[in-house]
Amino acid sequence: QVQLVESGGGLVQAGGSLRISCAASGRTFSINIMGWFRQAPGKDREFVAGIDLSKQTYADSVKGRFTISRDYVKDTVYLRMNSLKPEDTAIYYCAAGESGTNTVYDYWGQGTQVTVSS
């Protein structure tokens, strides 16, 4: 099992920046991919960014503004968010996937709220 705990969410003005973190614990050696998703009120959860050993991927809506990174020593993944917009307001969820399963992401955190004021 892998446990994920997000932190760093909060309130920020439009145009500002924020970095959120996700600390993994448990069977972290089995993780081969980590990512961030978000869910705004009344909307479905959507992919934001993902990172594995070879590449990072981003949703078109955040490309050029958000950066995902991973510290393998600390077992922590970060999402640096710049030029934030009110439409970035959502609960941000961290996710992790193990190799050898039928799904890309197997574990989810509880989420951290990010609110961008106009």
Quick rundown:
The chain is mostly beta strands and 118 residues long. The protein is 0% helix and 57% strand.
How would you describe what is shown here?
The protein has 118 residues and is mostly beta strands. 0% of the residues lie in helices and 57% in strands. It has no helices and eleven strands. It has strands at 2-7, 10-13, 18-26, 31-39, 46-52, 56-58, 66-71, 76-81, 90-98, 107-108, 112-117. Strands 2, 4, 5, 6, 9, 10 and 11 form a seven-stranded mixed β-sheet that branches. The protein has a four-stranded antiparallel β-sheet with strand order 1-3-8-7, with no helix packed on it. The protein is globular. It starts with a strand and ends with a strand. The mean pLDDT is 96.
Sequence stretches where pLDDT stays below 50 over 5 or more residues = none
Query: Structural class, please?
Result: mainly beta
The fraction of residues in strands falls at over 45%
Strand element count: 11
Instruction: Based on Cα principal axes, name the global outline.
Output: globular
Terminal-residue CA separation: 40 Å
What are the secondary-structure elements, in order, as H or E? EEEEEEEEEEE
* Largest β sheet strand count, sense and barrel closure: 7 strands, mixed
Number of helices: 0
Rg on CA atoms, Å: 14 Å
Residue-averaged pLDDT, rounded? Answer: 96
Helix % is: under 10%
